[in-house]
Each structure stands twice: as C-alpha cells, then as structure tokens.
C-alpha cells in the first residue's frame, strides 16, 4: 500500500530500509534528549519490529515525491510515519512521526503528520485521529498543532523518563476539522 499527500509519497517499510531506520532511531538528535540508552536498536530488533507490523499498526517511509525532483534523482527519503488503527472505534493514533536529522527544520514533521491524518480520515474513512507527546517536547507539540490537531487533555505523571514522571499531552483531529 502506498499513498501521496501534500507533495509527499508514503510507501510501506521494506527490509532494505532497516539500516537507515535503525540509524535514525538510534541517533541521539532524533530522541530530543529522551532516548533511553536501553532503547538503542540492533538489526535483529529492527527485523522483529518489522515482523510485528499488522493491518492495525502501520509504518510508512515518507519521501519527497519523484515529480518534484530531477528525473535522474531517486525519491528523497525524509522520515517515517507510524500509526495504529482501531476499526471498531473509527479512530487512529499517530504513534510516531520521525524526520531524518538532516531533514529537520524544513516543515517535514508537520507535513508527514498532516498527510497521515488526511489519509486515515479521507481514504480509510476514519472519524478521529490522535497524536500525543511529552509535555517537555515543545517542538512536537508545536508540530502537532501546526498540523491542525487540537489540544484535548493531559495525562498527569504518565511517562517515566530520565528519573522522573512527565505529563503526556493528547491532541485530536476530527473529520469535521478537515472541512
């Protein structure tokens, strides 16, 4: 499955992506200072993650579309979009939007998140999409809201990181918000 939105092309993760994905996920710049040293992924862990994907957990590589680049250049990989689908509740949760460290600051985070939400609502027919982040992740909060998500609530003391509990912010985008 693949889709195109907001001048980005999304394709399913393939085994050939494991090396750069592992490098991106292990890059301390991508962890916003929150990476737990125990979360560094090996190639085996990357393969286990890939094998665990199902029709409710989706992962897509985000690429700048081919038609925006010279004919001789391959699509430019910019990041990764992950979401979980709940068909019974007609809801989706954006579980991760990662941008390659060298591509940050160019609007890709907002575009990836918004594109995923539009796809889930317009193409898959879902009613609601959520996105979440730590209270201290100001950049993620800004990107989520710039993508059109509305603040919905806070789970106080929800996440244990770096020796203390942190609040978890929840945002949502509804079908009617896209109109």
Description of the structure:
By secondary structure, the chain is of the alpha+beta class. The protein has a single domain, classed as Aminopeptidase (3-Layer(aba) Sandwich), CATH 3.40.630.30. It contains four helices and eight strands. The chain has an eight-stranded mixed beta sheet with strand order 1-2-3-4-5-6-8-7, sandwiched between helices. The radius of gyration is 16 Å and the shape is globular. The mean pLDDT is 84.
- Shape type: globular
- List the uncertain runs: none
Give the helices and strands as they follow along the chain: EEHHEEEHEHEE
Main beta sheet = 8 strands, mixed
Summarize the structure.
With 179 residues, the chain is α+β, with helices and mostly antiparallel strands. The protein contains four helices and eight strands.
């Amino acid at each position: 499955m693949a889709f195109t939105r907001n001048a980005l092309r999304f394709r399913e993760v393939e085994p050939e992506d494991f090396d750069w994905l592992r490098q991106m996920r292990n890059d301390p710049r991508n962890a916003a200072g929150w990476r737990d040293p125990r979360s560094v992924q090996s190639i085996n862990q990357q393969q286990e993650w890939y094998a665990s994907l199902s029709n409710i957990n989706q992962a897509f590589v985000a690429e700048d579309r081919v038609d925006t680049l010279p004919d001789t250049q391959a699509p430019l990989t910019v990041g990764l979009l992950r979401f979980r689908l709940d068909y019974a509740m007609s809801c989706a949760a954006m579980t991760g939007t990662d941008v390659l460290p060298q591509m940050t600051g160019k609007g890709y985070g907002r575009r990836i998140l918004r594109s995923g939400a539009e796809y889930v609502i317009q193409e898959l027919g879902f009613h609601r999409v959520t996105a979440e982040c730590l209270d201290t992740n100001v950049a993620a909060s800004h990107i989520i809201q710039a993508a059109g998500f509305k603040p919905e609530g806070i789970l106080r003391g929800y996440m244990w990181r770096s020796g203390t509990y942190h609040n978890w912010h929840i945002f949502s985008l509804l079908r009617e918000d896209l109109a």
